[in-house]
Write a structure and sequence with these properties.
Elements lengths: L1 H34 L14 H25 L2 H27 L1 H25 L7 H9 L35 H11 L1 H32 L5
Helix pairs in contact: 1-2, 1-7, 2-3, 3-7
Length: about 230
């Protein structure tokens, strides 16, 4: 019985931590929606921008962790089963996405490169119509990752935005970040492929442990005859 109580409160603590993290990501996504104008990096997926991605990710983490926390705390079989099912769906989706990425890597890269080009052209046209006064996802990405354009700064015609300027070099001539954002992301992913794989495995292990814990509590409640309280 003491082991089950330990398991119960461990689930509560871990899910509470994840709930706080999810709420933080959710709040940050809302904050980004309010401070500036965002445009989609990928025109084919209009909802794909930094704010929306953080918003959706925060909602998923918050909802799943809340189910796990409340289900463990109240020893509610319905909530524990819902928690188990959602974790299982998330794990299957992650593994499916990883497999598709490995199988269709070349096609995905070609699609992203083409779509980013369309998004970049749209951003350039928007800047022309607003006298280069707006900020969008491109500025956020370029400022954060110290990159410019898709492959290099020459794709911003006729003039790259301020977010492309290399502020680390104090010279009279304007210097731009030499590496493109997609090139930087691709090279970084290839260099950290092992770490990425380990990260995916760790996430899957956490999800499997969460499912095991929830089923253990579920079985204990069933044997105790507490029913769907």
């Amino acid at each position: 019985m003491s082991c089950l109580k330990c398991l119960k409160y461990t689930m509560c603590v871990v899910n509470f931590i994840f709930f706080i993290c999810g709420a933080t990501v959710f709040g940050f996504g809302i904050y980004l929606m309010t401070i500036s104008r965002f445009s989609s990096l990928l025109p084919s997926l209009h909802a794909v921008n930094i704010a929306n991605l953080l918003f959706i990710t925060g909602i998923i983490i918050t909802c799943v962790s809340f189910l796990g926390f409340l289900g463990a705390l109240k020893e509610n079989r319905c909530l524990l089963v819902s928690f188990f099912i959602l974790l299982f769906i998330l794990m299957v989706a992650e593994l499916a996405a990883a497999c598709l990425l490995l199988m269709y890597e070349a096609r995905i890269e070609e699609f992203i490169n083409k779509d980013l080009k369309e998004g970049l052209d749209t951003s350039i046209n928007n800047r022309k119509s607003h006298n280069n006064t707006i900020e969008d996802d491109w500025d956020k990405v370029q400022t954060t990752f110290h990159c410019c354009g898709i492959t290099n700064y020459t794709e911003w015609k006729p003039h790259p935005p301020k977010s492309c300027i290399d502020s680390t070099k104090s010279t009279n001539e304007t210097q731009y970040w030499p590496q493109g954002c997609f090139t930087l992301l691709k090279d970084s992913f290839e260099k950290n492929l092992l770490n990425t794989g380990v990260g995916v495995i760790v996430v899957c292990i956490i999800e499997v442990l969460g499912m095991c814990f929830s089923m253990t509590l579920f079985c204990h409640i069933s044997r105790s005859g507490l029913g769907y309280k």
